[in-house]
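Q: Hi! First time doing this. I have a protein sequence and I read that you can turn it into a structure. Is that right? Here it is:
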Amino acid sequence: WVLVAECELGDAGVVCCGFTTPTRGVGEEVAALAGPSAELERVPPHLRGCVLPSELDIPEGARVVKIGGGEAHCAILLDTSTSIERVLPRHRRHRGRVLMLGSNARGQLGLGDASDRRIPATLTRLTDRLGVGLGGGGRVSDRGGDSLGGHDQKAVLDVAAGAAHTVLVTEDARVAAFGQDARGCLGQGESGTGRRFLLPRFMHWVSRDTTRVAQCAAGAAHTVLLTADGRVLTLGDGARGRLGHGEDAPGGGFRSSSTPRRVAGLDGLRVVRVACGARHTLCVTDSGLAYVW
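A: Yes, that's right. Below is the predicted 3D structure, encoded as structure tokens:
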């Protein structure tokens, strides 16, 4: 038996702590052959790995604390195993490391190229190769290191995966995103909308001096940020009201946003958790109320 602590349902498969069953490109075939009454023998050998859970190798001494499943990729957030800390105090630390896996056609793995990964690859860089953040809001120097995880490096606190983009929150309350900037979901401003970014880029519109971000969530083409003081910011595709700003487009309708905007309808409430479906958003307040749009 396997105790599952976290799971995520993407458009192309199910990802769980300890195993992954990607079904990209074969989803309909698997669904037809591996229904509740289907027997494994009916499934072609090359598809059986997509039906039965299989263990995913992660670095020794690490444990999975969160996963984010996109349309055809996933992000895996690690921490250091408490058992290895007791046995080997000088072991390599894994707190805040991120593993990326799956499709990378639009740069959604943040590894600097567009090659898919069948084996988890560590996300190591949080800025461009010159160590200068070129994210939304201007060219901002990022002195003091641009690596993720491990000793004396920035740790990631939260990850989320959209259809073709990924968002992460660092321990110093900053937000970075990468992949396809569909309708502004990466927060890079009007100049970034529609572009593909192969490396993580900070959202400098959200300054850690004024707005400290604690959590993130991602829909198909929109992004939700939760600040440390319980406010909700949204950006990206605003179709059908998924950003929570009402019919704010000229002449009616819903407007997309390439920069984070506060959801004014939640003013006066303290939100403690945010989540996204492909085309909808929800949050939970400290009093236990859920709001969905």
